[in-house]
What does this fold into?
Amino acid sequence: MFKFRARKTAAVLFTLAGAPAAMAQPPDPTLSDTFGNTAAGTDALLHLTTGFANTAIGDAALWSNTTGGNNTAIGYQALKSDTTGGANTASGALTLYSNTTGSFNTASGNAALYSNTTGGANTADGAGALYGNTTGYSNTASGEAALRANTTGSFNTASGAGALSANTTRRLQHR
It folds into this structure.
């Protein structure tokens, strides 16, 4: 089992006269393993066991991931709850935060696809886009809060700030 723990450390050396001497270089906070995983940030990829080809950049990014592979999480707690989901891309703080086993999702923007747990093949671009989606799949939301209330609806497309923001379970809507 691999444990990634990047720690921020820095050291300053002082001479006897009190003037700063040469600064010691902190250790590289980026860690990689033989399975192609890369972690940078406090507790990024903390629970990884046999997952492969994951990239986690940010505090607690991909924190719960154990065996999921081909995930990319960039941002504070991005993909934090993901355990076995694969081929997800999360860019922004709290993106895909609740995802556990969903796969093939792409989220960009603060808290995009935040509530997604098992939904797959969703694309959310914009702060809060597809925020409430839990198990819906094959949705596309582009714009702040687009499809925000969608929970289980599938095959929906919303473009523009707030587009279809009240949709919860309906299928095949396009705005």
